[in-house]
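A favour between colleagues. Tell me how you read the following sequence-structure pair.

===
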Amino acid sequence: MADVQEIEVVVAHSERATVRVGNVFLKIDSDPDHVDVEVAAMALAPVPTPEVLWHNPPVLALAALPGRALGHLGEPSTASPRAWAAAGAAVRTLHDAPLPPWPGRSLDELATRLDQECAWLIADGALPADLVTRNRHIAEAALRPWTPVFTHGDLQVDHVFVDGDEVTGVLDWSEASRGDALFDLAILTLGHEEHLGDVVAGYGADVDLDVIRGWWSWRSLVVIRWLAEHGFDPSAPGCEVDVLRARM
């Protein structure tokens, strides 16, 4: 640490921030419950996770993972099909593990959030009404009863690290809970539809692709306001608005 020449801000907004100092990531979260869940989930998860160096709320120090992110939303992934399949296999290992002791979001909560965000998108004029209405209809396919599994809850492609064709670790477990297995698969492939077949092949089970597409629409619809309010651009090429347009 004494030889560190600079600090890299990985992500920063009003709720949380992550900075890299050498080979250490420091995560600062305004909600201590998020950090508690992250530490507990990583201890339970049967997949590679970052080493917890220390935890002094509201700061969590994690060792850097080897390799690189599987991809980034809005950019073509340079990872191989085998790496994407390995990610699918890692997700299956997680989903086959015993459930965490804390619950996840209910179906009613998810439906209510979809209602609220769609109403805001139309009232604010943030998106064309027909785009919102079409994707809301698609999203409803995901809002059905499911058998809960141990889910990561925010399995963005940036959160899965690979070295060659091997998964070296999974980051950011603060949303981990009991949930729908297909939600994790959908978030992993959001904006990377071309790799869905690789992920499903690695996952090794039949999945309902209409539900995956439903979660793509649900996720994109419900995060647009939050992203805009926190300095991110959901209309950037390949990001959430493009995901919604691809469903038209």
